[in-house]
Specification:
Elements (H helix, E strand, L loop, with lengths): L4 H24 L5 E9 L5 E9 L4 H10 L1 H12 L8 E6 L2 H16 L5
Parallel strand pairs: 2-3
Antiparallel strand pairs: 1-2
């Protein structure tokens, strides 16, 4: 499925604005954590944005995702103000935890373990 230029542009705006917002929130927090926006996918009609987040350290993932879900309407208002002049409808936001870096790390550990036990 190919994304249109419009979808890519809207996704890029959302990704940049949320990256800045989460960076600011993390710097103002008393706890030390990092939230990165690893990907944003927007539906063809621009009505839904799926936002994928990486959260470190892992201990903070559940509470941060719960907080983001609880504040979803404020996040939609935030993005609505940022995109008001560029889109007619502000997309509904869906946040997902991106664990692909965990998967890479796990795979690397498994491959290192295999190095000790050559198959041949």
């Amino acid at each position: 499925m190919n994304e249109s230029n419009r979808q890519r542009k809207v996704a890029q705006i959302i990704q940049e604005d949320f990256a800045e917002l989460f960076r600011k929130q993390a710097s103002e927090s008393s706890q030390s954590f990092l939230i990165t926006v690893s990907d944003v996918r927007v539906t063809a009609d621009l009505s839904i944005a799926r936002i994928y987040l990486s959260i470190f350290p892992q201990d903070y993932r559940t509470p941060i995702m719960k907080e983001i879900e609880a504040n979803k309407s404020q996040y939609r208002n935030f993005i609505g103000q940022k995109m008001a002049n560029q889109v007619r409808i502000i997309p509904d936001l869906y946040f997902y935890l991106d664990t692909s870096l965990d998967d890479v790390e796990k795979l690397e550990k498994e491959l290192k373990g295999l190095g000790d036990n050559p198959i041949l």
